[in-house]
Amino acid sequence: MKNLPHLTFLRSFEAAARYLSFTSAADELNCTQSAVSNHVRSLEEFIGRPLFVRHPRSLSLTDVGEAYLPSVRHALQEIDSATQLLISQSHKREVVISCPVSLAERWLLKVIEGFSAAHPGIDLTIHSTIWVDVETNVSDISITINHVDDVTGPAVKLWDEKLALVCAPDYRVGGEALTRPEQLAQAKLIHILGRPVYWERIAGHFGLTGIEQKGGLQTNSSNMGLEFAANALGCAVLPKSLVRQQVASGRLVEPFTFDLDCPWTYFATFKDKAATPSVKHFKTWLLQAAAEMEL
């Protein structure tokens, strides 16, 4: 921006116009009367027109001053409002996170528990999502599950995800416990809508043919798929990060082991511009917890 007068000149003009006194304006601005008078004179020289009529014991605005004052006052109010907003945001002790509900109810819950104990003065708001993230700009930190080939830009991968096949401890296939991959041809398969690649990867890894890739029990919720499996309604393939707690508790079992990368994994996007100290604290905590994830 070019040809703008000094902000100090404008503040002195606005205060002097409000009080119609250089002395009273100086008291408000915590400077001398001569400083305010010089600021106003410099502003008049800058625009080339007088703003005040100087009487022996008072001031009055010229027509130019009367016309100029509302715009100056509005501009100063806008600057003050914007500055106060930035100050309040920089001190706001709140973090808003969006996260798929399946991860939020399991891994993120423990992360939040530890963070809240360490930083009790910071408020956390969690938006649980299913298929898509919440509206843009709502969250300070957004966690999403994405196909590894589809992610571009500033998103940070939280970990390298693995696939896990799980079922209830008492789940049976033809009266026998599920212990071998070839039994999957007769097993009831639980399908996560939008993730057919999970079962495709299992079939390809073990060289299986004839397993049902569609139909059967289906859900768009990973958590619901886990509940189906835990209630012995079939077996499910899901990201290992979602099943680890259920397996550790004995509610689910992995009937046979394998090491298979999951093509879908979790990414975090951080709104780093104008991030508050609270957001920075949670970002550091989150990334440290992700680095310690064991699959």
Concise overview:
The chain folds into three domains: 7-91, Winged helix-like DNA-binding domain superfamily/Winged helix DNA-binding domain (Arc Repressor Mutant, subunit A); 94-160 and 265-291, Periplasmic binding protein-like II (D-Maltodextrin-Binding Protein, domain 2); 163-261, Periplasmic binding protein-like II (D-Maltodextrin-Binding Protein, domain 2, 3-Layer(aba) Sandwich). It is built from nine helices and 13 strands. It has helices at residues 7-19, 22-29, 33-47, 63-91, 101-118, 197-206, 222-230, 240-249, 277-291; strands spanning 52-54, 59-61, 94-100, 123-129, 141-147, 156-157, 163-166, 172-173, 176-177, 189-192, 217-219, 235-239, 264-270.
Topology:
Blueprint: H1 7-19, H2 22-29, H3 33-47, E1 52-54, E2 59-61, H4 63-91, E3 94-100, H5 101-118, E4 123-129, E5 141-147, E6 156-157, E7 163-166, E8 172-173, E9 176-177, E10 189-192, H6 197-206, E11 217-219, H7 222-230, E12 235-239, H8 240-249, E13 264-270, H9 277-291
Parallel strand pairs: 3-4, 3-5, 10-11, 10-12
Antiparallel strand pairs: 1-2, 5-13, 6-13, 7-12, 8-9
Helix pairs in contact: 1-2, 1-3, 1-4, 2-3
List the uncertain runs: none
Structural class: alpha/beta
Number of strands: 13
Proportion of beta-strand residues? 15-25%
The CATH topology of the largest domain: D-Maltodextrin-Binding Protein, domain 2
Helix content: 40-55%
Neighbour order of strands in the largest sheet: 4-3-5-13-6
**Shape category:** rod-shaped
What is the end-to-end distance?
Answer: 55 Å
Q: What profile does the largest beta sheet have?
A: 5 strands, mixed
**SS summary, helix count:** 9
Helix-strand topology string: HHHEEHEHEEEEEEEHEHEHEH
Number of discrete domains: 3
- The whole-number mean of residue pLDDT values reads 90
C-alpha-based Rg, rounded = 32 Å
Determine the CATH superfamily of the largest domain.
Periplasmic binding protein-like II
Examine the secondary-structure arrangement and name the CATH architecture of the largest domain: 3-Layer(aba) Sandwich
Please identify the top-level CATH class of the largest domain. Answer: Alpha Beta
